[in-house]
Amino acid sequence: MAVTVDAVQLDDLVHRIAWPANGAAKRDAIISREWLVTNGLGGYASGTVAGAITRRYHALLIAALPAPLGRVAMLNYLSERLRFDDRTAFWLGAHYQSGRLAQVEGAEHLVEFRLEAGLPVWRYQIGATIIERAVILLHGQNTVHARVRRRHHRPAGL
Prior knowledge:
By secondary structure, the protein is mostly beta strands. The chain has helices spanning 10-13, 27-32, and strands spanning 14-17, 34-38, 44-48, 59-65, 70-75, 80-84, 89-92, 95-97, 100-102, 110-116, 119-126, 129-137, 144-152, 156-157. Strand 10 and strand 11 form a beta hairpin. The N and C termini lie far apart (54 Å).
């Protein structure tokens, strides 16, 4: 007996979230959309699409450790700044400090947020430079990978 399986197309695994172009998002909308990825052990990564950590258990790695430890924030946050050869610098993502948004201009460069096979990918554009940032949580491990790629660029350093 032959079994046929339909081929899965990459587009079937990508879910794009509508995002206002070039900083048009309102401050409330910037932190109202959230994402969550699990590792199959009870651990996870979560946050807002804009990058602001607004809840107690938003982090890039919350590990589920044996009792009595329970869930522990192992990697809370990464601050990313892009510096160009002409010495101009730009933050990627927003920050949330003391109950208010700070460095919100970093989220103004966010042009797309998508889930690829359930994993979050951010796309930022500053002039001709396009940066893609992804969070990859490995299944069955308390391990997170943060990937930053330059897709198209003028000379810059990360």
